[in-house]
Amino acid sequence: MTQKTALLIIDVQVGIVEGPIGPVYQKTSLVQTIKKLREDAWKRAIPVLYVQDTDVAELGADAYAIHPELAPLPTETVILKQATDAFHETDLHEQLQSLGITHLVMTGCKTEFCVDSACKRATTLGYDVTLVSDGHSTTDNTVLRAEQIIAHHNVSMHGLGNIGPFILVRDSTEDVLTPAHDTYR
């Protein structure tokens, strides 16, 4: 099966990556990983879409903005969302469908909330998903350290599927922009 890929960058807003909601675990390496993936996507003419959470801060506040090192180009799509699920009451699915996308490479913040729900929902909508193991992050909670949350999600999400489409967890050192799902079907 021929697949068409898009890179999805979820909630890498200043208020999450840097604070006050963050800083997220290994924020510098996270930003660099996503930045490199985005540059690779640009070189290969792979669409890059951003998701921005309207609940992070007031519109116009520094914390609301997408991290300056990852700021979208004026021609790139930014999906505004209110729910943890990037597809809920947004036009993300329609945007992806109009581009003919069948494979999503997922990155961003926060692992156990918005990244988790976007990955799972994408499979129910028919997309194969590659979750970049070192391309998502979060903060500590009262039970687990951020590092544990990330590790748990990298293990529990790998292979998770809904009938046909499923999630593969791959490291950014691999060619994550090329889907590997068909080798497992």
UniProtKB/TrEMBL annotation:
Presence of keyword Isomerase: no
CDD domains hit by this protein: nicotinamidase_related (cd01014)
Top-rank lineage group of the source organism: Bacteria
One Pfam short name: Isochorismatase
Entry-linked InterPro entries: Isochorismatase-like_dom, Isochorismatase-like_hydrls, Isochorismatase-like_sf
Residue span(s) of domain Isochorismatase-like: 5-141
Keywords: Hydrolase
Gene Ontology MF terms: hydrolase activity
Family the UniProt entry places it in: Belongs to the isochorismatase family.
Protein name: Isochorismatase
Organism, as annotated: Brevibacillus parabrevis
